[in-house]
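Inverse folding, one chain.
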């Protein structure tokens, strides 16, 4: 039997079991840096398969290896993230989160389930593998600096370094059974921007006696739009957005201080540094011109994510074999961010999308929403395709 059909058959056979795994993980989500029970559950699953692993990597992460019959120094890495989000789940499903205010709203439960499914498939055919499969269960993707960089620092990609790293992410915009990929730069770098505008508060009926930080803030927000519209090169995608403003005054009270939180994202590291300086310079000068001060704090986040061009082409070919060429989509760049970017800067990498939507079943909610869910038929595609990619890359 050809390896493609063998993997598809195994994916079909394991599907029910992996659905149960996903539902358990979905019902028991844990936030970043707190994935202790999740890690213990994953360890139990790997132990039951007889797969060697190291726990406690980057805090709660696991690194496991499936050794083939030959050429064990040739390594392919497969990654899944583990953490959930601080979101209250609203959709009523049998596997609803048992922890109020915590939810797998980004599909990491499906990522872990698919990787465990791929592990079951690959472990079943390990005597046919010309190399080693490394499984990376990564914690803390949802918070800076992300678990990927810490896993790398602790040697998850060493001894020997993988010749390729694959990662997949749920994508409700694609129907279950479909996948998508883009070669080259795919996801943006991301930084958190924090501004503290200080003035002199007082009674709102006596504006001549105050230095109004709310007015200063409004001018800063308008002035900072030129960072993108007039200072960024038009061919370098850039976003500067602010989503939180706090000025704790009242209708008749002007506060002493206003804070502003936002995000900066782009695809060029030199421009990224320049933009950081511009944001601070513009904000400070506007505040000073109006009698106040502005303090800038930047939390440096993930670099931009690069999909190896050759690996992306191979993915499209192999995915076409597995799901049909008509079910492989070419994706646009996105200003979203992912700490898989750290892996992509260490080894040839391919981060692709797994379709999980189903309009007929009413599964249309986007990630990071209170009603997010997946069509669980996608798990069959997710685990089987991931296993097939690993085998084909080992053969290559």
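Residues assigned per position:
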């Amino acid at each position: 039997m050809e390896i493609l059909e063998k993997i598809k058959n195994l994916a079909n056979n394991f599907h029910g079991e992996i659905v149960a795994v996903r539902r358990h993980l979905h019902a028991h989500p844990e936030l970043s840096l707190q994935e202790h029970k999740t890690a213990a559950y994953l360890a139990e699953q790997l132990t039951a398969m007889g797969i060697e692993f190291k726990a406690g990597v980057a805090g709660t992460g696991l690194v496991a290896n499936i050794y083939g019959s030959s050429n064990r120094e040739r390594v392919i890495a497969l990654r899944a993230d583990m953490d959930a989000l601080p979101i209250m789940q609203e959709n009523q499903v049998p596997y609803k989160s048992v922890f109020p205010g915590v939810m797998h709203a980004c599909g990491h439960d499906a990522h872990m389930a698919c990787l465990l499914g791929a592990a079951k498939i690959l472990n079943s055919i390990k005597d046919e593998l010309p190399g080693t499969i490394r499984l990376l269960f990564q914690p803390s993707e949802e918070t800076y600096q992300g678990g990927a960089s810490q896993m790398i620092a602790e040697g998850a990609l060493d001894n020997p370094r993988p010749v390729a790293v694959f990662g997949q992410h749920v994508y409700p915009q694609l129907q279950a059974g479909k996948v998508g990929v883009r070669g080259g730069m795919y996801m943006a770098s991301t930084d958190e921007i924090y501004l503290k505008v200080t003035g002199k508060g007082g009674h709102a009926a006596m504006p001549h006696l105050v230095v109004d930080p709310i007015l200063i803030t409004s001018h800063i927000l308008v002035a900072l739009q030129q960072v993108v519209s007039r200072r960024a090169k038009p061919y370098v995608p850039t976003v500067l957005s602010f989503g939180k403003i706090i000025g704790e005054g009242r209708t008749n009270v002007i506060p002493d201080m206003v804070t502003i939180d936002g995000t900066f994202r782009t695809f060029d590291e030199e421009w990224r540094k320049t933009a950081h300086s511009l944001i601070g310079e513009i904000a400070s000068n506007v505040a000073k011109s109006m009698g106040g001060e502005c303090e800038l704090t930047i939390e440096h986040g993930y670099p931009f994510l690069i999909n190896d061009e050759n690996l992306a082409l191979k993915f499209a070919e192999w995915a076409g074999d597995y799901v049909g060429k008509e079910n492989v989509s070419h994706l646009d760049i996105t200003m979203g961010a992912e700490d898989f970017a750290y892996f992509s800067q260490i080894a040839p990498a391919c981060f692709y999308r797994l379709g999980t939507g189903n309009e007929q079943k009413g599964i249309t909610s986007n990630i990071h929403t209170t009603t997010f869910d997946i069509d669980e038929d996608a798990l069959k595609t997710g685990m089987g395709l991931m296993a097939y990619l690993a085998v084909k890359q080992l053969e290559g």
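The first strand starts at residue 52 and ends at 57. The chain has two domains: 3-188+304-395, 193-300.
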